[in-house]
Protein backbone atom coordinates (compact mmCIF):
# COMPACT_ATOMS: atom_id res chain seq x y z
CA UNK A 1 0.00 0.00 0.00
CA UNK A 2 1.04 3.56 -0.61
CA UNK A 3 0.42 6.15 2.12
CA UNK A 4 -0.26 9.64 0.77
CA UNK A 5 -0.01 12.53 3.22
CA UNK A 6 -2.58 15.32 3.05
CA UNK A 7 -2.36 18.97 4.10
CA UNK A 8 -3.45 18.00 7.63
CA UNK A 9 -1.06 15.88 9.68
CA UNK A 10 -2.53 12.50 10.59
CA UNK A 11 -5.16 12.45 7.84
CA UNK A 12 -3.79 10.15 5.14
CA UNK A 13 -4.94 8.57 1.90
CA UNK A 14 -4.29 4.86 1.52
CA UNK A 15 -3.74 3.66 -2.05
CA UNK A 16 -3.75 -0.15 -2.08
CA UNK A 17 -1.79 -2.16 -4.62
CA UNK A 18 -4.41 -3.64 -6.96
CA UNK A 19 -3.70 -6.80 -8.91
CA UNK A 20 -5.90 -7.13 -11.97
CA UNK A 21 -6.24 -9.41 -14.96
CA UNK A 22 -8.94 -10.73 -17.30
CA UNK A 23 -10.80 -12.24 -14.30
CA UNK A 24 -11.11 -9.00 -12.37
CA UNK A 25 -8.98 -7.67 -9.53
CA UNK A 26 -7.70 -8.39 -6.02
CA UNK A 27 -6.32 -6.10 -3.32
CA UNK A 28 -5.70 -6.23 0.40
CA UNK A 29 -8.05 -3.64 1.87
CA UNK A 30 -6.55 -3.72 5.36
CA UNK A 31 -3.56 -5.24 7.12
CA UNK A 32 -3.18 -4.44 10.81
CA UNK A 33 0.59 -5.02 10.59
CA UNK A 34 1.13 -2.78 7.54
CA UNK A 35 -1.18 -0.08 8.88
CA UNK A 36 0.68 0.00 12.23
CA UNK A 37 4.04 0.24 10.46
CA UNK A 38 3.06 2.78 7.80
CA UNK A 39 0.35 4.90 9.46
CA UNK A 40 0.02 4.11 13.17
CA UNK A 41 -1.20 1.33 15.46
CA UNK A 42 -4.98 1.15 15.61
CA UNK A 43 -7.48 -1.39 16.87
CA UNK A 44 -10.61 -1.28 14.74
CA UNK A 45 -13.61 -2.74 16.61
CA UNK A 46 -16.59 -1.98 14.39
CA UNK A 47 -17.26 -2.05 10.63
CA UNK A 48 -20.16 -0.05 9.16
CA UNK A 49 -21.70 0.18 5.70
CA UNK A 50 -24.17 2.59 4.16
CA UNK A 51 -25.92 2.75 0.81
CA UNK A 52 -27.01 6.13 -0.51
CA UNK A 53 -28.23 7.71 -3.73
CA UNK A 54 -26.90 10.74 -5.59
CA UNK A 55 -26.90 13.94 -3.58
CA UNK A 56 -27.05 12.34 -0.15
CA UNK A 57 -24.76 14.21 2.22
CA UNK A 58 -23.97 12.58 5.57
CA UNK A 59 -22.14 14.73 8.09
CA UNK A 60 -20.25 16.42 9.49
CA UNK A 61 -20.21 13.96 12.41
CA UNK A 62 -17.91 13.01 15.28
CA UNK A 63 -18.10 11.20 18.60
CA UNK A 64 -17.05 13.00 21.77
CA UNK A 65 -14.59 11.50 24.27
CA UNK A 66 -14.48 9.02 25.86
CA UNK A 67 -15.98 7.39 22.74
CA UNK A 68 -14.19 9.39 20.05
CA UNK A 69 -13.40 7.42 16.90
CA UNK A 70 -10.73 7.13 14.26
CA UNK A 71 -12.11 5.88 10.95
CA UNK A 72 -10.79 4.21 7.84
CA UNK A 73 -13.30 4.78 5.04
CA UNK A 74 -13.71 3.53 1.47
CA UNK A 75 -16.23 3.15 -1.34
CA UNK A 76 -17.05 -0.27 -2.78
CA UNK A 77 -19.61 0.99 -5.29
CA UNK A 78 -19.96 4.42 -6.87
CA UNK A 79 -18.18 7.63 -5.88
CA UNK A 80 -18.22 10.04 -2.96
CA UNK A 81 -16.49 13.22 -1.94
CA UNK A 82 -15.14 12.43 1.52
CA UNK A 83 -14.34 15.27 3.93
CA UNK A 84 -12.43 15.45 7.23
CA UNK A 85 -12.45 18.70 9.26
CA UNK A 86 -9.89 19.35 12.00
CA UNK A 87 -11.84 20.25 15.17
CA UNK A 88 -8.94 20.02 17.64
CA UNK A 89 -8.72 23.32 19.52
CA UNK A 90 -5.18 24.65 19.45
CA UNK A 91 -4.31 22.77 16.26
CA UNK A 92 -2.54 24.86 13.60
CA UNK A 93 -5.05 23.41 11.12
CA UNK A 94 -8.18 23.90 13.29
CA UNK A 95 -11.16 24.47 10.98
CA UNK A 96 -9.26 23.29 7.90
CA UNK A 97 -10.49 20.36 5.87
CA UNK A 98 -9.30 17.67 3.50
CA UNK A 99 -11.47 16.52 0.57
CA UNK A 100 -10.78 13.26 -1.27
CA UNK A 101 -12.79 11.58 -3.99
CA UNK A 102 -13.18 7.92 -3.13
CA UNK A 103 -14.46 5.65 -5.89
CA UNK A 104 -14.90 1.99 -6.71
CA UNK A 105 -12.33 2.52 -9.49
CA UNK A 106 -9.53 4.22 -7.53
CA UNK A 107 -9.93 1.97 -4.42
CA UNK A 108 -8.57 4.78 -2.27
CA UNK A 109 -9.25 4.91 1.46
CA UNK A 110 -9.07 7.84 3.85
CA UNK A 111 -7.87 7.56 7.45
CA UNK A 112 -9.46 10.12 9.76
CA UNK A 113 -8.00 10.33 13.28
CA UNK A 114 -9.91 11.21 16.43
CA UNK A 115 -10.51 14.93 16.75
CA UNK A 116 -11.97 15.34 13.27
CA UNK A 117 -15.50 15.78 12.00
CA UNK A 118 -16.30 13.57 9.03
CA UNK A 119 -18.82 13.62 6.22
CA UNK A 120 -19.34 12.59 2.63
CA UNK A 121 -21.50 13.46 -0.36
CA UNK A 122 -22.55 10.94 -2.99
CA UNK A 123 -21.40 11.97 -6.47
CA UNK A 124 -22.60 8.88 -8.36
CA UNK A 125 -26.11 7.54 -8.96
CA UNK A 126 -25.61 5.28 -5.94
CA UNK A 127 -22.78 4.58 -3.51
CA UNK A 128 -21.94 1.85 -1.03
CA UNK A 129 -19.65 3.25 1.65
CA UNK A 130 -17.73 1.24 4.25
CA UNK A 131 -15.85 2.37 7.31
CA UNK A 132 -13.88 0.83 10.12
CA UNK A 133 -14.03 2.50 13.56
CA UNK A 134 -11.69 2.13 16.52
CA UNK A 135 -14.45 2.61 19.11
CA UNK A 136 -18.05 1.48 19.25
CA UNK A 137 -20.93 3.75 18.30
CA UNK A 138 -22.24 5.55 21.39
CA UNK A 139 -25.36 7.66 20.74
CA UNK A 140 -24.79 9.71 23.90
CA UNK A 141 -21.43 10.84 22.45
CA UNK A 142 -22.74 12.07 19.09
CA UNK A 143 -21.58 15.46 17.91
CA UNK A 144 -21.78 17.32 14.63
CA UNK A 145 -21.16 20.59 12.86
CA UNK A 146 -23.03 22.14 9.95
CA UNK A 147 -22.16 20.76 6.53
CA UNK A 148 -22.65 24.23 5.02
CA UNK A 149 -20.69 26.29 7.56
CA UNK A 150 -19.46 29.23 5.43
CA UNK A 151 -16.26 29.50 7.48
CA UNK A 152 -15.29 25.97 6.41
CA UNK A 153 -15.81 26.74 2.73
CA UNK A 154 -16.33 23.12 1.65
CA UNK A 155 -17.20 22.62 -2.01
CA UNK A 156 -19.31 19.46 -1.89
CA UNK A 157 -19.38 19.34 -5.72
CA UNK A 158 -23.18 18.95 -5.74
CA UNK A 159 -25.68 21.74 -6.52
CA UNK A 160 -27.27 22.92 -3.27
CA UNK A 161 -30.77 22.05 -4.54
CA UNK A 162 -29.68 18.43 -5.13
CA UNK A 163 -28.36 17.84 -1.60
CA UNK A 164 -30.35 15.31 0.44
CA UNK A 165 -29.96 15.50 4.24
CA UNK A 166 -31.34 13.63 7.23
CA UNK A 167 -33.54 15.64 9.59
CA UNK A 168 -30.68 15.72 12.13
CA UNK A 169 -28.10 16.94 9.60
CA UNK A 170 -30.26 19.97 8.75
CA UNK A 171 -29.80 21.52 12.20
CA UNK A 172 -26.17 21.29 13.36
CA UNK A 173 -24.34 24.38 14.64
CA UNK A 174 -21.48 26.01 12.76
CA UNK A 175 -18.01 25.24 14.09
CA UNK A 176 -17.55 28.52 15.99
CA UNK A 177 -20.83 27.90 17.88
CA UNK A 178 -20.43 24.15 18.45
CA UNK A 179 -19.39 22.51 21.70
CA UNK A 180 -16.08 20.99 20.62
CA UNK A 181 -14.52 18.63 23.19
CA UNK A 182 -11.14 18.13 21.48
CA UNK A 183 -7.91 19.92 22.35
CA UNK A 184 -4.61 19.39 20.57
CA UNK A 185 -2.86 19.10 23.95
CA UNK A 186 -4.93 16.10 25.09
CA UNK A 187 -4.13 12.49 24.18
CA UNK A 188 -7.67 11.17 23.69
CA UNK A 189 -7.62 11.98 19.98
CA UNK A 190 -4.62 9.75 19.29
- Helix count, DSSP H or I runs of 4 or more residues: 1
How many domains in all? 1
Q: How would you name the CATH homologous superfamily?
A: Jelly Rolls
- Strand order within the widest sheet? 1-2-10-7-12-5
CATH topology: Jelly Rolls
The ordered string of helix (H) and strand (E) elements is EEEEHEEEEEEEEE
The residue-averaged pLDDT reads: 94
**Form type:** globular
- What's the alpha carbon Rg, rounded to whole Å? 16 Å
Q: What helical percentage do the residues reach?
A: under 10%
Percent of residues in beta strands? Answer: 35-45%
Biggest sheet descriptor: 6 strands, antiparallel
Q: Regions with pLDDT < 50 over 5+ consecutive residues?
A: none
Query: What CATH architecture would you give?
Result: Sandwich
Give the structure's gist in a few sentences:
This protein is mainly beta and 190 residues long. Helices cover 4% and strands 38% of the residues.
